[in-house]
């Protein structure tokens, strides 16, 4: 019964002063506001009760009218700020009543105390993810006005830097703040004697620099008190500073480095930022700090091989990160940055490329509670992106693969993403593909993850699948049996170019030295119409991998003849489309290599020999200024003229009539050794006349 009567009694007991809120007597009204303020402090239940009674509109009226005294406005604003410190539902109610536009308009007041409490209230409201922070930019003079208010009090400095941090979400926001003088103001605040001023200033600076080369360059060249901002940050990173301050400074320098404003060889990165982040990962630090340090370290090192190498040998980092996996229950805040940038596609391993290519994905996201496990996996993903020795260190971590497999099936999207990124880095190791990956059947949870995954997970998971489909991977066969062809063909139709690339790349890997039935399945599922669409793709990498797929499909004589017998006209049309298109030499080289493969077939040769236009194109490319194109064209001619195959004399005669033999005799004088070898081989195929 008490739970039912209690709120009624509270309403009745407060009725008298709530009624006085509407009194025309300003003294009575002020007294009522103060009593109301005192009643809601520290009690979410009281805050909810007051909001339900419809008191907020009266407080907003007092703040916004021209009749109420400044003391009344001050107390009303403090009360609103207290209500905003309640639950998310309480803040939503205030936002629905348009508290933010009113607070922003109140910033024009000339009363210092009202300005101060108004900023405090606005800071509290802006902590909500639902707050309309973009309203800060509606009046182009507002940011300048806020900067002018910084000198009024320490409270103003704390509030304004926090407000600007919350309002810095996009590249446009970053540039606007930079252009309106925020960077010099923050540089000055970094030198404040007050910790509570320095910390939000670091957060604001970090948000402004994140993935913004223009702003980061301005920050790196800004000075205060004779010291550049990077030097000021190094000072704040000293071991005698609070660890939160060290972390904030390291984040700023990390973002400036990744934005290209500070090189990886700079001592501030090599000998200050990197060691600081490694140190903050240690288990003597608070869990939230360790998580943020590991994620920031992952971001710092993810694209630089030397930083990865140094980090891996610094202060027992690999065993330290292994602790994150053994104690996944440690939970903490993932930073204060509210900028969310979609990760660029990770580059899958290509049979014809360097298997140690970098991952190239971003690890940072909006504030959220996470466990230590994904932070450790994220750091391992970056450290192992390029170096096989580092991967060996990582893979020796106790039960690492069990943690990854479990992470792939975790209910948390963040954990799944970290696990698949770590798996992607490790999948760059030929040895791991042949051993550890097979032992743990990682393809099973990976294929499950690909079903209905979000685009961020899907991008990395499909990149990993590309590596698991290489011909030396034992996982290739079971992946094929689990429906990978359909899944990958669907990826090639996605709007995201990264997903199209991964889909066609994986199909290319799948087709490499594959059985004829697999090649036919790929070609039939993908369809020639989709191949033509991919050959017209705006992304050159998608075009290149599509040509690579055709090369892999058209390999070994029986397969070439079979596929050309079914789809020869369409394939020839596709090759001509590329050769006649406005493409670079590397694209046209792939098209010529496809022709060379077709020329290697027994029956397929006729698709070239019967096409005078294609033969003329080959003779033209024999004299091209690009040596690679010459070599590819001559390789095709050599296959057509191959003297040990049936009908060789007739084909040679036709090529002689077109002047091919004379061109080869001219080219034998080349100084290029590779071209010389191809010309010599081609000439030896022609019978003496």
UniProtKB/TrEMBL annotation:
This is Armadillo repeat-containing protein 8. Signal peptide: none annotated. InterPro entries: ARM-like, ARM-type_fold, Armadillo, ARMC8/Vid28, HEAT, HEAT_type_2. GO terms for biological process: proteasome-mediated ubiquitin-dependent protein catabolic process. It is found in: Cytoplasm; Nucleus. GO terms for cellular component: cytoplasm; GID complex; nucleus. Pfam families: Arm, HEAT. It comes from the Eukaryota. HEAT repeats lie at residues 400-436. Keywords: Cytoplasm, Nucleus, Repeat. Its main location: cytoplasm.
């Amino acid at each position: 019964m008490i739970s039912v009567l209690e709120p009624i009694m509270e309403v009745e007991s407060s009725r008298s002063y709530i009624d006085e809120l509407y009194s025309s007597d300003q003294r009575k009204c002020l007294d009522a506001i103060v009593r109301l303020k005192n009643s809601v402090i520290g009690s979410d239940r009281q805050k909810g009760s007051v909001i339900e009674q419809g008191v907020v509109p009266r407080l907003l009226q007092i703040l916004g009218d021209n009749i109420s005294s400044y003391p009344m406005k001050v107390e009303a604003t403090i009360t609103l700020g207290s209500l905003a410190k309640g639950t998310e539902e309480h803040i939503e109610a205030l936002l629905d009543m348009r508290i933010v536009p009113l607070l922003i308009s109140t910033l024009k007041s000339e009363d210092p105390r009202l300005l101060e409490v108004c900023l405090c209230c606005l800071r509290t409201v802006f902590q909500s993810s639902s707050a309309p922070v973009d309203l800060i930019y509606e009046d182009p003079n507002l940011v300048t006005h806020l900067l002018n208010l910084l000198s009024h009090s320490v409270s103003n400095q704390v509030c304004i830097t926090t407000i600007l941090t919350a309002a810095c979400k996009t590249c446009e926001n970053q540039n606007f703040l930079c252009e309106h003088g925020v960077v010099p103001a923050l540089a000055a605040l970094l030198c404040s004697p007050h910790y509570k001023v320095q910390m939000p200033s670091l957060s604001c600076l970090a948000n402004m620099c994140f993935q913004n080369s223009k702003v980061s360059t301005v920050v790196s060249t800004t000075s205060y008190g004779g010291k550049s901002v990077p030097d000021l940050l190094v000072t704040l990173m000293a071991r005698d500073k609070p660890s939160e301050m060290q972390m904030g400074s390291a984040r700023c320098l990390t973002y400036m480095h990744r934005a290209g404003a500070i090189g990886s060889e700079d001592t501030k990165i090599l000998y200050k930022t990197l060691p600081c982040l490694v140190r903050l990962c240690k288990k003597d630090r608070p869990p939230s700090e360790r998580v943020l340090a590991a994620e920031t370290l992952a971001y710092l090192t993810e694209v630089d091989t030397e930083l990865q190498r140094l980090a891996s040998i610094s202060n027992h980092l690999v065993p330290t990160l292994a602790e994150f996996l053994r104690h996944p229950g440690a939970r903490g805040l993932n930073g204060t940055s509210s900028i969310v940038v979609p990760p660029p596609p990770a580059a899958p391993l290509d049979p014809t490329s360097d298997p140690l290519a970098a991952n190239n994905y971003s690890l940072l996201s909006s504030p959220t509670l996470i466990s230590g496990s994904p932070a450790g996996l994220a750091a391992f993903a970056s450290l192992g992106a390029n170096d096989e020795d580092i991967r060996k260190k990582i893979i020796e971590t106790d039960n690492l693969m069990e943690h990854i497999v479990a992470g792939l099936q975790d209910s948390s999207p963040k954990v799944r993403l970290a696990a698949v990124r770590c798996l992607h880095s490790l999948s760059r190791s030929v040895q791991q593909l042949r051993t550890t990956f097979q032992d743990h059947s990682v393809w099973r949870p990976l294929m499950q993850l690909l079903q209905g995954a979000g685009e961020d997970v899907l991008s990395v998971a499909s990149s990993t699948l590309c590596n698991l489909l290489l011909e030396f991977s034992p996982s290739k066969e079971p992946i094929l049996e689990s429906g990978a062809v359909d899944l990958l063909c669907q990826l090639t139709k996605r709007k995201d170019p990264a997903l199209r690339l991964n889909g066609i790349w994986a199909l290319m890997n799948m087709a490499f030295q594959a059985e004829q039935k697999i090649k036919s399945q790929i070609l039939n599922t993908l369809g020639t119409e989709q191949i033509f669409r991919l050959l017209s793709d705006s992304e050159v990498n998608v075009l290149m991998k599509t040509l690579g797929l055709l090369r892999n499909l058209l390999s070994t004589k029986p397969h070439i003849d079979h596929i050309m017998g079914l789809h020869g006209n369409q394939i020839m049309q596709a090759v001509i489309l590329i050769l006649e298109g406005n493409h670079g030499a590397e694209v046209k080289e792939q098209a010529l290599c496809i022709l060379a493969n077709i020329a290697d077939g027994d029956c397929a040769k006729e698709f070239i020999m019967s096409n005078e236009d294609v033969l003329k194109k080959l003779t033209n490319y024999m004299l091209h200024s690009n040596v690679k194109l010459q070599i590819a064209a001559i390789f095709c001619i050599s296959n057509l003229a191959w003297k040990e195959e049936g009908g060789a004399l007739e084909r040679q005669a036709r090529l002689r009539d077109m002047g091919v033999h004379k061109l080869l005799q001219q080219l034998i004088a080349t100084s290029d050794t590779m071209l010389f070898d191809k010309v010599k081989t081609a000439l030896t195929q022609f019978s003496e006349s």
